[in-house]
Design brief:
- Helices cover 6% and strands 5% of the residues.
- The strands form two sheets. Strands 1-2 form a two-stranded parallel ribbon. It has a two-stranded parallel sheet with strand order 3-4.
- It is built from one helix and four strands.
- It starts with a strand and ends with a strand.
- The longest helix has 14 residues, at 6-19.
- It is largely without helices or strands and 220 residues long.
Length: 220
Protein backbone atom coordinates (compact mmCIF):
# COMPACT_ATOMS: atom_id res chain seq x y z
CA UNK A 1 0.00 0.00 0.00
CA UNK A 2 1.16 3.52 -0.82
CA UNK A 3 0.05 6.21 1.64
CA UNK A 4 -0.45 9.57 -0.08
CA UNK A 5 -0.40 12.90 1.72
CA UNK A 6 -2.82 15.55 0.41
CA UNK A 7 0.12 17.36 -1.23
CA UNK A 8 1.33 14.20 -2.98
CA UNK A 9 -2.15 13.50 -4.29
CA UNK A 10 -2.52 17.09 -5.51
CA UNK A 11 0.83 16.87 -7.31
CA UNK A 12 -0.19 13.63 -9.05
CA UNK A 13 -3.47 15.14 -10.21
CA UNK A 14 -1.76 18.38 -11.28
CA UNK A 15 0.79 16.47 -13.38
CA UNK A 16 -1.96 14.43 -15.01
CA UNK A 17 -3.90 17.60 -15.87
CA UNK A 18 -0.97 19.30 -17.57
CA UNK A 19 0.67 16.30 -19.27
CA UNK A 20 -2.51 14.40 -20.25
CA UNK A 21 -0.93 11.19 -18.95
CA UNK A 22 -2.96 8.45 -17.30
CA UNK A 23 -2.88 8.57 -13.53
CA UNK A 24 -2.01 5.44 -11.56
CA UNK A 25 -3.35 5.53 -8.01
CA UNK A 26 -3.67 1.77 -7.63
CA UNK A 27 -3.33 0.44 -4.08
CA UNK A 28 -3.03 3.95 -2.61
CA UNK A 29 -4.44 4.85 0.81
CA UNK A 30 -6.52 8.04 0.72
CA UNK A 31 -8.99 7.44 3.54
CA UNK A 32 -10.87 10.57 4.58
CA UNK A 33 -9.68 12.51 1.52
CA UNK A 34 -11.55 15.70 0.56
CA UNK A 35 -11.75 15.56 -3.24
CA UNK A 36 -14.90 17.41 -4.29
CA UNK A 37 -15.25 17.66 -8.08
CA UNK A 38 -11.86 16.05 -8.76
CA UNK A 39 -11.41 14.59 -12.25
CA UNK A 40 -10.28 10.94 -12.16
CA UNK A 41 -11.32 10.11 -15.74
CA UNK A 42 -9.63 6.87 -16.90
CA UNK A 43 -7.56 6.75 -13.68
CA UNK A 44 -6.47 3.42 -12.24
CA UNK A 45 -7.52 3.12 -8.59
CA UNK A 46 -7.40 -0.66 -8.38
CA UNK A 47 -7.35 -1.81 -4.75
CA UNK A 48 -7.14 1.72 -3.36
CA UNK A 49 -8.63 2.79 -0.03
CA UNK A 50 -10.97 5.79 -0.02
CA UNK A 51 -13.03 5.13 3.09
CA UNK A 52 -15.04 8.06 4.50
CA UNK A 53 -13.85 10.24 1.62
CA UNK A 54 -15.78 13.23 0.32
CA UNK A 55 -16.01 12.78 -3.45
CA UNK A 56 -19.11 14.86 -4.11
CA UNK A 57 -19.31 15.67 -7.83
CA UNK A 58 -16.05 13.87 -8.66
CA UNK A 59 -15.61 12.38 -12.14
CA UNK A 60 -14.57 8.74 -12.51
CA UNK A 61 -15.69 8.15 -16.11
CA UNK A 62 -14.00 5.02 -17.55
CA UNK A 63 -11.94 4.70 -14.35
CA UNK A 64 -10.80 1.36 -12.93
CA UNK A 65 -12.02 1.01 -9.34
CA UNK A 66 -11.76 -2.76 -9.10
CA UNK A 67 -11.56 -3.90 -5.46
CA UNK A 68 -11.48 -0.26 -4.27
CA UNK A 69 -12.65 0.36 -0.68
CA UNK A 70 -15.13 3.26 -0.68
CA UNK A 71 -17.10 2.36 2.44
CA UNK A 72 -19.19 5.17 3.98
CA UNK A 73 -17.95 7.75 1.45
CA UNK A 74 -19.91 10.70 0.05
CA UNK A 75 -20.38 9.95 -3.65
CA UNK A 76 -23.34 12.24 -4.24
CA UNK A 77 -23.65 13.49 -7.82
CA UNK A 78 -20.53 11.56 -8.76
CA UNK A 79 -19.92 10.47 -12.38
CA UNK A 80 -19.09 6.79 -12.81
CA UNK A 81 -20.06 6.43 -16.45
CA UNK A 82 -18.51 3.23 -17.89
CA UNK A 83 -16.38 2.84 -14.74
CA UNK A 84 -15.36 -0.62 -13.52
CA UNK A 85 -16.16 -1.31 -9.85
CA UNK A 86 -15.90 -5.10 -9.85
CA UNK A 87 -15.56 -6.44 -6.28
CA UNK A 88 -15.48 -2.88 -4.88
CA UNK A 89 -16.65 -2.30 -1.31
CA UNK A 90 -19.30 0.42 -1.35
CA UNK A 91 -21.16 -0.53 1.80
CA UNK A 92 -23.08 2.44 3.19
CA UNK A 93 -22.00 4.92 0.49
CA UNK A 94 -24.15 7.89 -0.48
CA UNK A 95 -24.68 7.78 -4.26
CA UNK A 96 -27.74 10.03 -4.45
CA UNK A 97 -28.16 11.70 -7.84
CA UNK A 98 -25.10 9.94 -9.26
CA UNK A 99 -24.40 9.37 -12.96
CA UNK A 100 -23.48 5.71 -13.38
CA UNK A 101 -24.65 4.80 -16.86
CA UNK A 102 -23.11 1.49 -18.02
CA UNK A 103 -20.99 1.23 -14.86
CA UNK A 104 -19.91 -2.27 -13.83
CA UNK A 105 -20.61 -3.35 -10.22
CA UNK A 106 -20.08 -7.10 -10.60
CA UNK A 107 -19.78 -8.83 -7.20
CA UNK A 108 -19.54 -5.42 -5.49
CA UNK A 109 -20.70 -4.88 -1.90
CA UNK A 110 -23.37 -2.16 -1.91
CA UNK A 111 -25.20 -3.08 1.29
CA UNK A 112 -27.28 -0.20 2.71
CA UNK A 113 -26.09 2.20 0.00
CA UNK A 114 -28.24 5.26 -0.73
CA UNK A 115 -28.69 5.31 -4.51
CA UNK A 116 -31.86 7.37 -4.76
CA UNK A 117 -32.52 9.28 -7.99
CA UNK A 118 -29.29 8.02 -9.57
CA UNK A 119 -28.89 7.15 -13.25
CA UNK A 120 -27.81 3.50 -13.52
CA UNK A 121 -29.12 2.80 -17.00
CA UNK A 122 -27.36 -0.24 -18.44
CA UNK A 123 -25.30 -0.78 -15.26
CA UNK A 124 -24.20 -4.34 -14.48
CA UNK A 125 -24.84 -5.55 -10.90
CA UNK A 126 -24.22 -9.25 -11.61
CA UNK A 127 -23.64 -11.06 -8.31
CA UNK A 128 -23.65 -7.81 -6.32
CA UNK A 129 -24.70 -7.61 -2.66
CA UNK A 130 -27.50 -5.04 -2.69
CA UNK A 131 -29.21 -5.93 0.57
CA UNK A 132 -31.02 -2.96 2.05
CA UNK A 133 -30.01 -0.62 -0.77
CA UNK A 134 -32.31 2.33 -1.56
CA UNK A 135 -32.92 2.72 -5.30
CA UNK A 136 -36.03 4.87 -4.88
CA UNK A 137 -36.69 6.95 -8.00
CA UNK A 138 -33.53 5.64 -9.70
CA UNK A 139 -33.19 4.98 -13.42
CA UNK A 140 -32.28 1.29 -13.78
CA UNK A 141 -33.46 0.82 -17.34
CA UNK A 142 -31.80 -2.22 -18.96
CA UNK A 143 -29.67 -2.79 -15.84
CA UNK A 144 -28.41 -6.32 -15.15
CA UNK A 145 -29.05 -7.93 -11.74
CA UNK A 146 -28.17 -11.53 -12.59
CA UNK A 147 -27.81 -13.47 -9.29
CA UNK A 148 -27.81 -10.18 -7.34
CA UNK A 149 -29.09 -10.10 -3.75
CA UNK A 150 -31.70 -7.34 -3.37
CA UNK A 151 -33.19 -8.59 -0.09
CA UNK A 152 -35.06 -5.75 1.66
CA UNK A 153 -34.07 -3.32 -1.11
CA UNK A 154 -36.23 -0.28 -1.73
CA UNK A 155 -37.09 0.31 -5.41
CA UNK A 156 -40.19 2.47 -5.08
CA UNK A 157 -40.91 4.55 -8.19
CA UNK A 158 -37.71 3.23 -9.78
CA UNK A 159 -37.53 2.54 -13.52
CA UNK A 160 -36.46 -1.04 -14.21
CA UNK A 161 -37.81 -1.18 -17.74
CA UNK A 162 -36.07 -4.00 -19.59
CA UNK A 163 -33.93 -4.89 -16.56
CA UNK A 164 -32.62 -8.45 -16.20
CA UNK A 165 -33.25 -9.85 -12.71
CA UNK A 166 -32.78 -13.51 -13.59
CA UNK A 167 -31.87 -15.64 -10.55
CA UNK A 168 -31.94 -12.54 -8.33
CA UNK A 169 -33.15 -12.47 -4.72
CA UNK A 170 -35.84 -9.88 -4.00
CA UNK A 171 -37.27 -11.22 -0.75
CA UNK A 172 -38.92 -8.43 1.28
CA UNK A 173 -38.01 -5.88 -1.43
CA UNK A 174 -40.34 -2.92 -2.00
CA UNK A 175 -41.13 -2.23 -5.67
CA UNK A 176 -44.20 -0.08 -5.10
CA UNK A 177 -45.11 1.94 -8.22
CA UNK A 178 -41.92 0.81 -9.98
CA UNK A 179 -41.84 0.58 -13.78
CA UNK A 180 -41.09 -3.08 -14.47
CA UNK A 181 -42.20 -3.17 -18.09
CA UNK A 182 -40.31 -5.84 -20.07
CA UNK A 183 -38.23 -6.72 -16.98
CA UNK A 184 -37.12 -10.35 -16.62
CA UNK A 185 -37.63 -12.08 -13.25
CA UNK A 186 -37.01 -15.65 -14.40
CA UNK A 187 -36.00 -17.99 -11.55
CA UNK A 188 -36.05 -15.03 -9.12
CA UNK A 189 -36.91 -15.31 -5.42
CA UNK A 190 -39.60 -12.76 -4.54
CA UNK A 191 -41.04 -13.95 -1.21
CA UNK A 192 -42.96 -11.08 0.43
CA UNK A 193 -41.75 -8.65 -2.23
CA UNK A 194 -44.17 -5.75 -2.72
CA UNK A 195 -45.34 -4.99 -6.26
CA UNK A 196 -48.26 -2.74 -5.31
CA UNK A 197 -49.24 -0.45 -8.22
CA UNK A 198 -46.15 -1.49 -10.18
CA UNK A 199 -46.19 -1.39 -13.98
CA UNK A 200 -45.74 -5.00 -15.08
CA UNK A 201 -46.51 -4.82 -18.80
CA UNK A 202 -44.75 -7.73 -20.55
CA UNK A 203 -42.70 -8.53 -17.43
CA UNK A 204 -41.36 -12.10 -17.51
CA UNK A 205 -41.93 -14.16 -14.35
CA UNK A 206 -41.40 -17.59 -15.89
CA UNK A 207 -40.18 -20.23 -13.43
CA UNK A 208 -40.71 -17.81 -10.52
CA UNK A 209 -43.11 -18.50 -7.65
CA UNK A 210 -45.20 -15.34 -7.33
CA UNK A 211 -47.67 -16.85 -4.84
CA UNK A 212 -45.93 -15.29 -1.81
CA UNK A 213 -45.38 -11.86 -3.38
CA UNK A 214 -47.69 -8.91 -2.75
CA UNK A 215 -48.99 -7.99 -6.18
CA UNK A 216 -51.53 -5.29 -7.06
CA UNK A 217 -51.01 -4.36 -10.70
CA UNK A 218 -51.62 -0.75 -11.68
CA UNK A 219 -54.47 -0.69 -14.24
CA UNK A 220 -53.64 0.51 -17.76
Amino acid sequence: MLYLTPNELFEALYERKHTQTDIDLSYCVMNGAYLLGTNFTEADLTGSQLRNANLHGAIFAYANLTKTDLRDSDLTRITLTNANLDYANLRGVDLKGSHCKNAIFKSANLQLADMRWGDFEGADFTGADLRGVDFSGANLKNAIFLRADLTCAKLTYACLEGANLTLSTLNEANLTAANLSDAVFEYASITNAIFTEAYLDYADFRNTDISKAIVNILPC
